Amino acid sequence: MHPPAPDVRWDVVGLGANAVDFVYRLPAAPAIAGTFSKMRISRQSISCGGQMTTALVACSRLGLRAKYIGATGTDDNGRRIRAELAHHSVDLADAVIHDAQNQYAVIMVDDTSGERIVLWDRDERLHLRAHEIPERAIVTARLLHVDDVDQEAAITAAQIARQAGLVVTSDIDRLTPRTADLVSAVTVPIFAEHVPTGLTGATDLETALRQLRAVHSGLLCVTIGVDGAIALDGDTIHHSPGFTVHAVDTTGAGDVFRAGFIYGTLQGWPTDRVLRFANAAAGLSCTRPGAIGGVPALPEIEALLAADLA
Questions:
Q1: N or C: the chain end with fewer CB closer than 10 Å?
Q2: Domain range for residue 215?
């Protein structure tokens, strides 16, 4: 890892969502009608997740100094997520507590495939306000990571970071009137599979990425589930296939991918190596239940990569 500059306090600062997950494991995927329209729950649990907080815990487990910027609630779930982040050495000094119910999700996991359906709710009072964005913390980081939950806050933070010369990565998984502005604000947009085609109207990802190149000169990356990831680096398309694993729960895999991507980026690795490492991290996260609970450690990822080369 490259040594940080003397004034750098954090390897990665993350601004975005946290959540507590109520996980219900089911014998099959739910259906509107028929046999699977009514099922007994196989197992249930409560665990911590959320796009940003899962990614930051994964960064911390990879040995990066991580800091969280976001709003938590005053209820038991808010206390639970704060305790979980502290347990994983994610700094919370600039996280805020709003008088609201913390974001939560109901996650239904198909025991046969590990695929999941996520139902969530977030109190509007949890939106991060402009004066709650700590510029001093952002500019003393090596990299800023944002999601698209509080888009206005993410855009503001990204602009602060870019002015300070930071790399700004992202988790962009929905289409809104501000999505294009968020894409422009970050240096490395990382998209969910449906977003590039939704933004451009293209029918395939490579065409969509090449169209986005006209408005963004940086590395463009798309996660594509079990098929891995695609990136456009300059004019070159890189496709890095996913790892074959026995999937138990895919919750949080995209967030762990982003943590792996951040780790590789901070090492200064070439794009192919960054994608392969991130895919290995994401694949391992699918082999165990939970979002934060499924985060792998660095030696596990290195072992999977070594085994894949053997």
A1: C
A2: 10-17+50-102+127-309
In sequence order, what DSSP letters do the residues of 190-249 get, joined into one string? EE-TTHHHHHH--SSHHHHHHHHTTT--S-EEEE-GGG-EEEEETTEEEEEPPP----S-
* Distance (Å, whole) CA 176 – CA 194: 13
Calpha distance 157→237 (Å, rounded): 29
What is the total count of domains within the chain? 1
**Whole-number Å distance between alpha carbons of 43 and 25:** 5
- The answer to the question of residue 80 being in a domain is yes
Predicted pLDDT at 135: 96
Residue whose pair of structure tokens reads 């500059």 in the numeric block: 5
Closest CA to 52 of 208, 256, 297: 256
Count of CB atoms within 10 A of residue 179's CB? 19
Q: Judge whether 202 lies within some domain.
A: yes
Domain membership of residue 108 (yes or no) is no
| Domain containing residue 250: CATH number | 3.40.1190.20
Percentage, residues of the chain above pLDDT 70: 97
Say whether pTM exceeds 0.85.
Answer: yes
> Cα 14 to chain center, whole Å?
10
The two tokens of residue 141 are 């980081």
Tokens of 9: 């306090």
pLDDT at 286 over 50: yes
